[in-house]
Amino acid sequence: MINFDNENDTVVDQEVVKKLKGWGNYIQAKLGFRNHWYPVGFSEDLEENKPKPIQLGGEKLLINRIDGEVFCIADTCLHRGVSFSEKIECYSKDTVTCWYHGWTYNFNDGKLCDILTDPNSQMIGTRALQTYPVEEAKGMMFVFLGDVAEGDEPPALGLDLPPWFLDEDRYVMGIGREIESNWRLGAENGFDTTHIFIHKDSSYLTARDAPIPLGFATEQKLELGIHDKDGAPKGVVDPLMGNYRPVFDANIKGESVLSSVRPEGEHSTIYQVSLWMPGILTVENHPEPDITQVEFYVPIDEKRHMYFQILSKKGVTEPEQIHRYKEEFTSLHEPLALRGFNDDDIWARKASQAFYDDDYGWLEEQLFEPDHNLIAWRKLASEHCRGIQRAPRTGAARVVAPKKE
Ligand code: FES
């Protein structure tokens, strides 16, 4: 990790470091941001009383559904640091017992409620695992990766989602997969307007007769929508139209070397894109009108992220509409758009990882004009994050005092 206060750092020019201090929090957020909501999976994938380990922001967590409600606790025993998920043992539906020496914790408040091997221990009732608030919405489970003082509530889930995401007339379907790159390379890959160059050979374009340009030439005036008002989601919107001219022909030294099919008439090949805290992309009218693709880049650890690819379709509320949309999703959108088309993006993120792995890539990269929206995003994220996620030492747990009865 780069230490911005290290005046003796000779690897990078200190002037460059000073310039980048405007997005210093972002560069340090290798594990994501603390005190934000992140999706951790689809509700249908968590069965009743079947605890499941997950990793979020470098922390090992255990989620469980009890009487329909989802709970999340640290997956690290306070006694000697092993993970419950090595061998899950639950002797009552609302507790987990450590397989090693029998320390037993409540799922709802993390309290050490019993020790099976020494029921007289003075430790019982005096310690608690950290617990994390969970909410379910749109068929997904969201965990608040943060610290909530006793008697307080976490910020509303809607503040960490695109503004319309929870609208009742939108139906959401999607997939999730683990990607071997830092989460920021995912977020920036999606928002980066000229990354579409990698899609020029995608079979999706011919299969769907949906040509896209090779790139976007910047116009003189570049305008972005910056959403930074208190009490509302924070994000950067790039309207694309007006900011760029689509590039359909590419030349080297005046000679045409590549071209892509120009769409006919008013065919819209330019979609508004936006990037929201804590790392959520939206692409409007993609893969087709009335659908917005929403991508969550959720930090697993420093080198991996969960990539949730969600298609949110407007006006789908009736059972028949839902049935049709599910069929459309399974037969068309998932294989062609989410896997075929987006596999190019995944490949690009993995290929970028080595350059940014030791963090100096953030200083050595040479950005060009179309990257102005990435800079706006980095600044917004640095200014409006509620904290930077730091993982506890590997295997160590955060010990918290149990809540008062
Ligand atoms: Fe868990 Fe001892 S390490 S009870």
Automatic annotation (TrEMBL):
Gene3D superfamilies: 2.20.25.10, 2.20.25.680, Naphthalene 1,2-dioxygenase Alpha Subunit, Chain A, domain 1
Keyword terms: 2Fe-2S, Dioxygenase, Iron, Iron-sulfur, Metal-binding, Oxidoreductase
Pfam families, per database record: Aromatic_hydrox, Rieske
InterPro entries: Cholesterol_7-desaturase, Homotrim_ring_OHase_catalytic, Rieske_2Fe-2S, Rieske_2Fe-2S_sf
Entry keyword Glycoprotein: no
Residues in Rieske domain copies: 37-143
Domain of life: Bacteria
Recorded GO MF terms: 2 iron, 2 sulfur cluster binding; dioxygenase activity; metal ion binding
Protein name: Carbazole dioxygenase subunit
